[in-house]
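User: ABC transporter permease protein, Paenibacillus curdlanolyticus YK9:
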Amino acid sequence: MNGLRMYGLLVAASFRSRMQYRFNFWFSTAMSALINVVEFLMLAVILLKFGHIQGWSLSEAGWLYAVLTLSKALYRTVASDVHNIESYLVSGELDALLLRPVPVLVALMSRNVSIRAGELIQGIAILSLSLASLMQAGQLGWIAVPLSIFVIFSGAVLLFAIGLLTATVGFWLTRITELQNITEDAARTAAQYPISIYPRWLQGILLGVIPVGFANYMPGLFVLRGDTGWWMLPLAAAVAGALLVLSLIFWRLGLSRYQSTGS
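Assistant: Predicted structure for ABC transporter permease protein:
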């Protein structure tokens, strides 16, 4: 509880600091939203042209896209600088966090807090439209709303765990931008679309090696189509929880091996 309280205080201070530059905040928010809109429009154009991809309609693909977008927005809101740990390792700025009377991970997560308003607004809009369309077609009922919220939070935990595992590798490699491009950016981009459209070997990577598919696709099979049993939702949450525990253990190991720039 003390750690959560510290995190809340540090986040509030970081947010007040960022709001000193209001134009920069709103401009970056608008640009982020625009980038996400363009990404989804590319998918929408393909689906409107051909009607569906591997049996997935525009509304179903929109649900997958929106859920992952919202999960990513939550992860990057509460732990933005976990993704930017390379700069801390290269510049030696992590040494300053080691001197603070708070856990290093808490201090890192609370730095440079940015509310991903653009991604949140866009994700909520696409999710609402997708659910409304599927409900109007009789494919889903209102129970899909709380289930979708559950999947979003479970996915945020999973994305955070993947991000933390990748960040921890930096204690050994230092330069991890290319690795992050694979484990976070490329994997998440691929998971924005139905995983069934990919070859078997890539499906295996997105579900086994970098299990980002459990953030939206696997639980989506049950929420959207009932193709699996109800157990798929707790299974997806269990995968996220197990990966989170593993990432925290790995983080502590990496931190114990860290050699500061002054040593």
